[in-house]
Specification:
It comes from Streptomyces platensis. It is built from 5 helices and 20 strands. Strands 1, 2, 3, 4, 5, 6, 7, 8, 11, 12, 14 and 17 form a 12-stranded mixed beta sheet that branches. The protein has a 5-stranded mixed beta sheet with strand order 9-20-19-15-16, with no helix packed on it. It has helices spanning 64-69, 142-147, 152-156, 173-178, 203-211, and strands spanning 2-8, 11-18, 21-26, 34-41, 46-47, 56-60, 79-83, 88-89, 95-97, 104-106, 108-114, 130-137, 140-141, 161-168, 181-186, 189-195, 221-223, 231-233, 238-243, 247-255. The termini are far apart. A hairpin with a 2-residue loop joins strand 1 and strand 2. It has 2 domains: 2-47, SH3 type barrels (Roll), CATH 2.30.30.370; 56-255, Fumarylacetoacetate hydrolase, domain 2 (Alpha-Beta Complex), CATH 3.90.850.10. The protein is globular and about 55 Å long.
Length: 257
Amino acid sequence: MRIARFSIDGNVGFGVLEDGELDVIKGHPFAEFERSGQKVPLDKVRLLPPVLPNKVVAIGRNYADHAAELGNAVPDVPVTFFKPSTSVIGPGDPIAYPSFSQEVHHEAELAVVIGRMCREVPRERVKDVILGYTCANDVTARDVQQREKQWARAKGFDSSCPLGPWVETGLDPADIAAGLAIQCTVNGEQRQLGRTSDMVRPVEDLIVHITEAMTLLPGDVILTGTPAGVGPLNVGDEVAVTIEGIGTLTNKVIKRG
C-alpha cells in the first residue's frame, strides 16, 4: 500500500494511492483507518512530505563504499545525528542552496517511517514498529561538515531533508536486506547507484541501536545512509532519488532568497 499526504483546495489529508488516484482516508495512517471512498486524481493534488516527523534520526557512513570515497573508515558503532523538522520538504519542493556553503552534495537514502511510539525495541519486533519506507535526500553542506565538528548546520539547514513521494507499506526489513536498487540522478545523469543490501548495518540493528537511547514517535524518520557517488549540486539542478519498489523523489535546487 502506498500512503501519500497531500493538499488540495487548502485542505490537507492522507490517501491511499491506486491507479493514479488517491482514496482519501479517514483520520491518519498511524492507527487503524477507513477509506472514505472519496477519490482524487493524483495530478490534481500537491504532494506534501509524506509525514511531519518530530525528529529525523540519520545514520552516517552506513555504506562502506561511501565511507571510503570520503576517506573515512567504517565506524565501530553507527554514527547518528539529527536533522530538524524544519529541514523537511516534500516532492517538488525546492532545495534552497544555503548562503554559508559553497559545496552542497546530494545523498540518496532509504528512509524508514516509524508507525508507533517505541522504545528499547528488541530485534525480533522491529517490523512491528515500522509504518513503511520512503525516499530521502540527505542534502549536505560538505565544506561546512568538514570544518565543523558538529554536523548540525551542515546537515540541518532549511530544505536539506526532502522526503517522498509517499510511504510504501508493503516492504519489510527482509526486502531491504535482500537489496533494493537506490539511485540518484542530477539533470538526468546518474550519480549514485547502489543496493540496500550493501548497508553495513541493516534496518533492524539501526532501530535497536537508536531506541536504546530514545523514544521514537509515530511519523519519526530514520535515514539509513547513502551509497557511493555523492557529489555537488548547483543552483538550477534537478535532483532525483529513485528506490526500487517505492518511487522517485524529485527536487530542484534554487538560490536561497
